[in-house]
Write a structure and sequence with these properties.
Structural class: mainly alpha
Number of helices: 12
Oligomer: single chain
Largest sheet: none
Radius of gyration: 23 Å
Order of helices and strands: HHHHHHHHHHHH
Amino acid sequence: MAKLDNKKTEKVVLRSQGREVWRRLTKNKGAMLGLAIIIILTILALTVDLFIDFDTQIAAIDAKNRNVAPCAAFPFGTDNMGRNLLYRVVYGTKYSLFIGVMGTVFACVVGIFLGLMSGYYGGLVDDIIMRFIDIIQAIPAIMMGIVVVSALGASMTNLIIAIGIAGVPYLTRITRAAVLTVKNQEYIEAAKAVGLSEPAIMIKHILPNCVSPILVAATMQVAQVILAASSLSFLGLGVPVPSPEWGSLLSAGRSAITSHPYLCLFPGIAIVITVLAFNLFGDGFRDALDPKLRK
């Protein structure tokens, strides 16, 4: 009976904490605006193949409608091959969000593992891991991406790996800092006293109490990954053409930026809105999880 009561109490506490975080989050108008944009973009990315055909509406060339300025028929205009820029920008949502999320997942998996090892064991393990992280962090993210993509070849998978590696130091440091604040707590000492293995302690007791800062860092990291991926695609090292990733669209339109500025304007606006949405939500999420802001 005591165990059942403890489980019920824990569920009630978790539920009340979740509701309190959500209540504070809903009071932040910027965070809710960012969340609304993220939801819309996610739905768009998941359903875009249902109403836009890649072969006929994205990759097909229409010589009769080359370089048409924005109008009723083509709200975003057309490029030098007659392709509808609106369809291409909307379809590019799928690529940019997928790269942003998967690049962040890659960075989180590696960064959380290294951060756990470094923060929990300390000593020589901590020194080795953190010096390795210092080396990676000393290389600019774009330079790291250029090196990895140049070595492995231009593809979406290689782009995700390149951007993910660049994001590992940030997630590692966040995780390590969170672990250092948790590992000396009394309940960790109690878990050691009852004979739990070190992997069990790290996974069941330490990591769950480090989730909040990691989630905030991951949310902010998505925006950085999208920006970095767009930069590499702009340099021709991202998603291969004719896939309409936003950075590739910017690169394709830069040669005609003076005569047809809309070719760069609309993909640029899409990048700005997406990055701004993740940053707004990340800031609001961080504030909602901050116990110092509770009233």
